[in-house]
Design a protein that fits this description.
Layout (H helix, E strand, L loop, with lengths): L7 E8 L5 H10 L4 E4 L15 E3 L15 H12 L8 H20 L5 E2 L18 E3 L3 E2 L23 H7 L6 H20 L3 E2 L1 H15 L4 E2 L4 E7 L2 E9 L2 E13 L8 H7 L18 H7 L5 E2 L4 E3 L2 E3 L5 E4 L10 E4 L13 H10 L5 E5 L1 H6 L12 H5 L3 E4 L2 H8 L3 H17 L11 H5 L19 E6 L3 E4 L2 E2 L6 E3 L5 E7 L19 H16 L7
Parallel strand pairs: 1-2, 1-11, 2-8, 11-23
Antiparallel strand pairs: 3-5, 4-5, 6-7, 9-10, 10-11, 12-21, 13-20, 14-15, 16-17, 17-19, 18-19, 22-23
Length: 555
């Protein structure tokens, strides 16, 4: 019998309300267990609600309905090919648990009323062994937040997307609306939804709010207690086992027991400058992140105090973007903006250092490797007149963005280089070489436009390569690009059941971990759209299966 006195006691306590929390809670409810979700913020959803709302789930039955397009073996081959050497930093058992558990989790959630659709998003390295040009990503259909009733104000929402009822995959087509029929159809569809919102009161949400709004709804239907505004301050242990948490609710400290265990799903440490300075590559800033304000690493530190093993602490889910001089995000640009024709990205030396159409995490890693922080996006007037830039529509830039220095403009590349502090000779040589590549349709330096994923972000009306276009037409523009992120990708090392491990690889009994609080199962890479939120959900599901002894636990 425990010697501790608790204010409340549950079978399972979940700290955080990101992607993995509701799948875990529903497993517990399915097994007749008591469960509670404790959320630090006043709103539900964590960073998953701020995300694109896409989940990468290999071998799922929605994007692989007849079972012939994917398999556990093909998914494993791909994950290992993408991760390269870092694949050895994650056990095979954990990778295979993710692959098998993901497919099972999707079926489990659908049985509970969740809705998923095939995102039709190519794997980010579809050209590698096991890669799929049709992808392995799922998303949630648009969700009318009014269905949450009184809980609607408690759904988290990223300010950048508040008023746009669209899903992430639609944004790709919207960005070429001036050039393609499909883009125009998507634009018209979004306009229609805006009318529904204005005249009929529908509050349609896409992306992360659609995913987490639906998950929130499932939790409420299953009578899962969700305590918002309740930060978890510490873990309670007895004889080396985690048996509960210390949380603060309504200004009062409460000790909450957890008979079967505690699941940490409280995010990483993107908002903790001290931890960023200690672990992350330099330069770094808490202003370059799009994650939840609650992402301060509190429970990673609490687990460290128990001897938890950490890894990948220098990695983040990089999402390069730009920021206004007065503060605030101006949007992310990799690869949707910089992967379009008539644009390149260079370092201070004026040289390209990566494929601008590559995945955003890879591009962020290469920014740091090249010492290109900030880097500079260089584009001509054709790009500016044709494609959006972050949250800016195509066309003449707002004068205030030129006046405040957010955008640099010049009638020659040499003058543009001088305004940016870029080596002029390097930039002129780079543009001349790139223009030759664009004319031929072959990027001899970085192979831009040679995969389905690259082309997904290109302009299909541009030939011979939808991702390449000459930079010739003045005026020319430049914008500083920084390695923003959507969360840190390192944290507590866990086994195939989601159990936290010590430095000697022994299990910390009663402690489970998922999401950005844990080491990424995909290694130091990003294999496909939703490769952070997807594993969060899967290992939340697996952890609850293990803790409750549920049947169907992945083996």
């Amino acid at each position: 019998m425990t010697k501790h006195r608790f204010d409340e006691e549950y079978d399972f306590v979940i700290a955080g309300s990101g992607g993995g929390s509701v799948p875990a809670a529903l497993v517990m409810k399915d097994q007749g267990r008591d469960v509670v979700i404790l959320e630090k913020q006043s709103v539900f959803g964590g960073t998953s609600a701020y995300s694109g709302g896409v989940i990468w789930i290999p071998n799922n039955h929605i994007s692989n309905p007849d079972g012939t397009q994917d398999s556990p073996e093909q998914a494993r081959t791909y994950m290992e090919a993408v991760a390269g050497a870092s694949a050895q930093e994650v056990t095979l058992e954990r990778r295979m648990a993710f692959i098998q558990g993901g497919a099972e989790m999707v079926r489990f959630l659908e049985a509970k009323g969740m809705k998923f659709v095939d995102a039709q998003w190519p794997d980010y390295h579809d050209e590698l062994p096991g890669g799929r040009a049709s992808g392995r990503s799922l998303t949630a259909p648009l969700f009318d937040a009014n269905e949450l009733g009184d809980w609607k104000p408690h759904l988290a929402q990223l300010a950048l997307t508040t008023d746009i009822p669209m899903n992430s995959s639609e944004s790709v087509h919207l960005f070429v609306a001036k050039k393609t029929f499909k883009g125009k159809v998507v634009a018209a569809r979004i306009a229609w939804r805006m009318m529904l919102k204005k005249f009929f009161g529908k509050d349609l949400r896409g992306a992360g709010p659609a995913l987490q709004g639906r998950m929130f709804q499932l939790a409420k239907r299953a009578s899962v207690p969700v305590w918002t505004g309740t930060p978890v301050r510490d873990l309670i242990t007895e004889n080396g086992r985690v048996i509960g948490v210390v949380a603060v609710r309504d200004g009062h400290e409460r000790r909450i027991g957890a008979r079967l265990g505690v699941l940490i799903n409280a995010g990483g440490f993107s908002r903790n400058l001290e931890m960023r300075e200690k672990y992350q590559p330099k330069p770094t800033s808490v202003d370059w992140t799009l994650v939840s304000p609650a992402d301060t690493g509190d429970l990673i530190l609490a687990a460290m105090a128990l001897g938890a093993k950490l890894d990948f602490m220098n990695e983040s889910w990089w999402l390069p973007g730009s920021y206004y001089p007065e503060g605030g995000s101006a949007g992310f640009h990799s690869p949707n903006d910089i992967g379009k024709p008539h644009c390149i990205v260079v370092g201070k030396d004026g040289r390209r250092f990566a494929n601008e159409s590559a995945g955003y995490m890879e591009f962020g890693q290469k920014m740091y490797a090249a010492g290109a922080v900030p880097a500079w996006a260089i584009f001509d007037s054709r790009h500016r007149n044709t494609y959006p830039w972050g949250t800016m529509f195509p066309g003449k830039p707002p004068q205030r963005l030129l006046d405040n220095g957010y955008l640099k403009q010049a009638d020659s590349l040499a003058v543009l280089a001088e305004k940016c502090g870029i080596h002029a000779g390097g930039l002129l040589d780079t543009v001349a070489r790139f223009n030759h590549f664009a004319a031929d349709g072959i990027d001899q330096d970085f192979h831009r436009g040679e995969s389905a994923y690259n082309n997904y972000y290109g302009d299909p009306t541009v030939r011979p390569n939808p991702n390449l276009g000459e930079i010739r037409k003045a005026p020319f523009y430049a914008c500083a690009i920084y390695p923003g992120d959507v969360g840190t990708a390192g944290g507590i090392v866990a086994d195939e059941y989601g159990r936290a491990l010590r430095e000697d690889d022994s299990v910390i009994e009663g402690l489970y971990v998922t999401g950005n609080s844990s080491v990424a199962v995909v290694g130091r890479c990003y294999p496909g759209a939703g490769a952070s939120v997807g594993p969060s959900m899967v290992f939340g599901y697996i952890a609850a299966c293990h803790a409750s002894g549920a049947n169907g636990l992945p083996t």
